[in-house]
Amino acid sequence: MISRRRFLNTGAASITAATLAPSWPAFAGEAPRIILEPKPGTAPLVEDAPSPTPVWAYRGQVPGPVVRVRRGDTVRVRLKNGLPQPTTIHWHGIRIANAMDGVAGLTQEPVPPGATFDYTFTAPDAGTYWYHPHFRSWEQLARGLYGLLIVDEDAPPPVDRDLFFVADDWRLTDDGTIDEASFGNLHEWAHAGRLGNFLTINGRSGPEIKVRAGERIRLRCVNVATARVLAFNFDRLTPRVIAIDGQPAPAADIDTGGLVLAPAQRTDLVIDVTGDAGSHIPVWEVSTGSPFEAARLVIADGPPLRSKPPAEPIQLASNRLLVSPSLGDAQGIELVMEGGAMGTLQEATFQGEVLSIRDLMQKGMVWAFNGVAGKPRKPLAVVPRGRTATINMVNRTRWPHAMHLHGHHFRAVERDGRPVTDAPWRDTELVAPGEQVRVAFVADNPGKWLLHCHMLEHQAAGMITWLEVT
Ligand code: C2O
Ligand code: CU
Q1: What is the pLDDT of residues 144-189, one digit of tens each?
Q2: Beta strands in 286-427 (DSSP E)
Q3: Nearest residue by C-alpha to atom 1 in ligand 1
Q4: pTM higher than 0.90, yes or no?
Q5: Which terminus of the chain, N or C, has less C-beta within 10 A?
Q6: From ligand 1's centre to the CA of 93, what distance in Å?
Q7: Whose CA is nearest to atom 3 of ligand 1?
Q8: Which ligand 1 atom is nearest residue 103's CA?
């Protein structure tokens, strides 16, 4: 196994703030249809590699172009499939009409090579979201298909610059190409998933992000890795959290252990940059116990933008559409996760048949929700529209799982049987081995909504179900 640092170049990898800035300006009202064409291409992931890495990319870029609108605007995207296999686009974390959710086999047919599909939806909430395929996502994301969806606030907060920090964990071979031989390795799927060995931030290894002293930046951090839980530490800076999984959160410091991001999770930070011109601030990846520099903020020459940080803290306006679920008459849904390496799963139902774990493995299944492996024909639960529901997610496996519900945001109300108050709204919750987390949400969005582990190999190997809101 090659080291995660293998390709990390501490030299002068440099991308300017301009390349980090959103590539599409916000537009108002009826927007032109954006064409997103996923297709094979290359990306300069590895500095000094003899040739760029062959990837799959939207518009030839990794990450794909930022799709950016204002709250209440209509997003109009045409997917034109330039891949050698079917695909879709799922708009992760945003509460949109079910027919536009992009889930192959649940909300739409997969889009075959050469075909197109038009996505049109209104963005109800401001915040940081992202898009990715929902067909063979364990392969398509690992090859580079993902991008940001940013919905601007009615009154965006006063920051000097709005940057993003899209973290990916690639599995590359010694020559810097994607390790294709490891796709579909059931042994890994039964463990943590297909972990990578090469970290990129915004599609580059160890990029330099140019900043100015005195500047206040908003940094939209996203983990797009298929399996790895990442954690970042900003050295001597003290970032403040202002939003989690797209939804505004009360301003808070990041944990002392760093900013933990499970696959699919987002955190928006506000950072007041301090330091001397020409100095730099490393951003450390700290999840593995051997921290390394994931990126660095380099303070440009010249006088500071202001002599001391702005006094006012930033507090985003709530997206209003969320109401606090009242739990009194909530519909309770139980979700027991089982399986995986060192687990106790003996048998599970797969496509209507009860199979032993050996037979399940023949079908590529190693995980189950409530004794069912893979997407069931019938929903896990049917919830009438407007009703509050709770999902008690019980992790009876030896592995953490990043549980994601489509079309809604939820909040934890109980952890290991103890009540939790004021948990952030999330669309993806990390549930530790042996842990039990009850989340609550108002089922206000009609349709068929997936509930799955966002460790995409776990999803592919059984951890997927769905709810129907009628
Ligand atoms: Cu980000 Cu079901 O996905
Ligand atoms: Cu999982």
Answers
A1: 999 999 999 999 999 999 999 999 999 999 999 999 999 999 999 9
A2: 292-299, 331-339, 347-350, 353-356, 367-369, 372-373, 381-383, 388-395, 401-405, 411-415, 418-419
A3: 92
A4: yes
A5: N
A6: 8
A7: 92
A8: 2
